[in-house]
TrEMBL record:
Protein name as it appears in the record: Cyclohexanone monooxygenase
InterPro entries: FAD-binding_Monooxygenases, FAD/NAD-bd_sf, Flavin_mOase-like
Any one Pfam family match given in the protein's UniProt record, by short name: FMO-like
Domain of life from the UniProt record: Eukaryota
Length: 556
């Protein structure tokens, strides 16, 4: 019979779940990982769509805690593609013999906190029920697929896909393909498949500012240089703002001449990477409208130079703020110079509905298609939490709690008041940064917090047993009454939410409709979902919480 109780249950076997398992096992705890997928990988297990690629450079899109593996594990290009990331995570799991602690094809359906016994009761899709003192969720920021509300989707007789749940194989050769959505995922898919399909129609919801990725083969000299500097590289990453491996600029855009701005933007365009273009060039592109417009003007000019058809260029050219998740690509705009690639602006000509044969537009145009792809993103950050029943004290669900607080709120992006011994990796109001360094930061904080709680629990049990023995009474057979309870204060959660709001107050990201503020899902409240203070500042906050004896938490 399968073991029903564990010290800790980790939900998700992606970057976060793998490292959390490793850390807790090192601490001597019994740990189980469950995942709805058939194997490890998290986001990178599901997102197998053509062109899927990390937009963080290869040398830091990995774990920092195994120096030998950092130096010796191979990577051939500046950016990792989906198969590369998946293979790397599989390698780490095998290297540390972690798979034996994992159970796949097992989806969390309900988690209920049992106050009397201080344990979580977790029910799974397999019929398994586990109990655990701690539950750590590594559900991912971008996992719950978001389909737009378009009439007739169910009528389409061709192949229909969402990029967030892609099949293992596909064949689009000589097929007519339509893609709805052109954010980061849409840009990657369009760039990857344009050359292989008979016809490609991009149904564009919002024009995007995208810059080259700068991808290409890595030379031995480059790799040797990285290997020799890994200690200083990670030191810089952990103390930076966005944790992408470069020093963020401290120079305001309008403090230099127009010629200097042009040169800086051109250098960033040549070197590649969306986060570099946004944060390495100048310090105020995300907060100053005049500075932001300078960056916008540069990218618009590039689009006009690249795209040969004036009407396609017009549709592709954005005119709002450059204030969404910064994109980079491997030749996105160039694809629209192909005669088989067209673009439809949904702001000018909305989709009327999906038919058996394709897409019907408001102006009466019908696009007959063999394949329809939705690159429409995710119900980001909290979507995976509100779709399942996670219930804390008094049976209150996370969804109900967040309805009362006016949106998804946490303390430090990790804990929620009223949900004892529940931890989130990359939960709401965590840092807006490169994901692996943020995951490492949070996993290490969670592991250290659990270790501290376990020490307190042992001390209480020891003291209780001593009292029991001195009274010649039997020691309690169930020590759960003295088990550690880690719970954020509501006041701390409220304060952290206010900090995140204040930091984001001047951000131009607030003035655009994107998933970063929850505006990509119709009917969803526009709300703060991230801490914009940077990874270095966030790590400092966590250190202060620990050094103060876990300020913001109920006493252990």
């Amino acid at each position: 019979m399968a073991q029903p109780h564990f010290d800790a249950l980790v939900v998700g076997a992606g970057f976060g779940g793998i490292y959390q398992l490793h850390k807790l096992l090192q601490q001597g705890l019994s740990v189980k990982v469950i995942d709805a997928a058939g194997d490890v990988g998290g986001t990178w297990y599901w997102n197998r769509y053509p062109g899927a690629m990390s937009d963080t450079e290869s040398y830091i899109y990995r774990y920092s805690w195994d120096k030998d593996d950092l130096i010796n594990y191979p990577w051939k290009e500046h950016y990792l593609k989906q198969p590369d990331v998946l293979a790397y995570l599989e390698h780490v799991v095998d290297r540390y013999d972690l798979r034996k602690h994992m159970q796949f094809n097992t989806e969390l359906q309900q988690a209920q906190y049992d106050e009397a016994n201080n344990v979580w009761l977790v029910q799974c899709s397999t019929g398994d029920t586990f109990t655990a003192r701690y539950v750590v969720t590594g559900l991912g920021l971008l996992s719950k697929t978001n389909y737009p509300n378009i009439p007739g989707i169910e009528k389409f007789q061709g192949e229909l896909y969402h990029t967030g749940n892609w099949p293992r194989t596909h064949d689009f050769k000589d097929k007519r393909v339509g893609i709805v959505g052109n954010g980061s995922t849409g840009v990657q898919v369009i760039t990857a498949i344009a050359k292989e399909v008979r016809q490609l129609v991009s149904f564009q919801r919002t024009p995007q500012y995208s810059v080259p990725s700068g991808d290409g083969p890595v030379s031995k000299e480059y790799r040797d240089s990285i290997n020799s500097r890994y200690d200083e590289i990670w030191e810089q990453v952990r103390n930076s703002v966005v944790a992408f491996g470069f020093e963020e600029s401290k120079i305001p855009a309008m403090s230099v001449s127009a010629e200097e701005r042009e040169e800086k933007f051109q250098e960033a365009w040549r070197r590649g990477n969306g986060f570099r273009f946004m944060f390495w060039t100048f310090s105020d592109l995300t907060v100053d409208e005049e500075a932001n417009e300078e960056a916008c003007r540069f990218v618009r000019k590039k689009i006009g130079q690249i795209v040969q058809d004036p009407e396609k260029a017009r549709k592709l050219t954005p005119h709002d703020f450059y204030a969404r998740r910064p994109l980079c690509d491997a030749g996105y705009y160039e694809q629209f110079n192909r005669p088989n690639v067209d673009i439809v602006s949904l702001k000018e000509n909305p989709i009327k509905g999906i038919t058996e044969n394709g897409v019907a537009m408001s102006d009466g145009t019908q696009y007959d298609l063999d394949v329809l792809i939705f690159a429409t993103g995710f119900d980001a950050v909290d979507g995976n939490y509100t779709r399942i029943a996670i219930k804390g004290r008094n049976g209150q669900s996370l969804k109900d709690h967040w309805d009362k607080t006016g949106g998804p709120t946490t303390y430090l992006g990790v804990c929620v008041s009223g949900f004892p011994n529940l931890f989130m990796i990359t939960g709401p109001n965590g840092p807006f940064t490169n994901i692996p360094p943020t995951i490492e930061t949070q996993v290490e904080f969670i592991a250290a917090t659990i270790a501290t709680a376990e020490e307190h629990g042992r001390a209480k049990n020891h003291a209780s047993n001593g009292v029991a023995n001195s009274n010649s009474a039997a020691a309690p057979s169930n020590s759960s009454a003295f088990g550690p309870v880690i719970e954020a204060l509501q006041s701390a959660e409220d304060n952290w939410t206010q900090v995140c709001k204040e930091i984001s107050h001047n951000s131009l990201f607030r003035k655009t409709d994107s998933w970063v503020f929850g505006a990509n899902v119709p009917g969803r409240k526009h709300t703060v979902l991230f801490y914009f203070g940077g990874l270095g500042a966030y790590r400092k906050v966590l250190r202060e919480v620990v050094d103060s004896g876990y300020q913001g938490f109920k006493p252990l």
